[in-house]
Amino acid sequence: xxxxxxxxxxxxxxxxxxxxxxxxxxxxxxxxxxxxxxxxxxxxxxxxxxxxxxxxxxxxxxxxxxxxxxxxxxxxxxxxxxxxxxxxxxxxxxxxxxxxxxxxxxxxxxxxxxxxxxxxxxxxxxxxxxxxxxxxxxxxxxxxxxxxxxxxxxxxxxxxxxxxxxxxxxxxxxxxxxxxxxxxxxxxxxxxxxxxxxxxxxxxxxxxxxxxxxxxxxxxxxxxxxxxx
Length: 229
Prior knowledge:
alpha/beta, CATH 2.40.240.20, EC 2.1.1.193, RsmE, seven-stranded parallel β-sheet, elongated, Alpha/beta knot, 2 domains, 7 helices, methyltransferase, 25% strand
């Protein structure tokens, strides 16, 4: 069944009009007609089966015929990561961690960051597409770019992966089901950023014997966190 997304629908919705983009996709691209069934997601735990009542490519009308609600997960997997210079690599990571079950993504600005500005809309669209593909009912929260030091101070007691020497832990053995996981840029976090993290209660992480690309490290950390759920 084809899936469509709108954050504004809820369990009280009876009839609904798809936005113009989704209407065009349903009626012109997929060629759906009156009487055809579709699925609606709101990214907040609701899946609804709906029937098309008006197949207009600009204002597709549907009525909800069945609603399923899923409780929110009792854990948080929050990946806070410095975006790569090439957007495509970070887009790939957002897609994959969404499929796996990440609940929140924050983009970080480090002293060694290669990319210092982002447009979130593209990442949000990729997350929506990945949510549909994986049949998840919850869309991860994606946050604006924030400086590493500000993030650490506002979110103490997390986990930080870096390539410097130190006593490091395997995330699968120490993850507490809620604290953020920091992944640095390809030039790594600065020594000062790592020290700030440690003084704010962050545990240092090892992501294995191999040196990983930033986007691979983000995916690996998400998988390690999931092993503890």
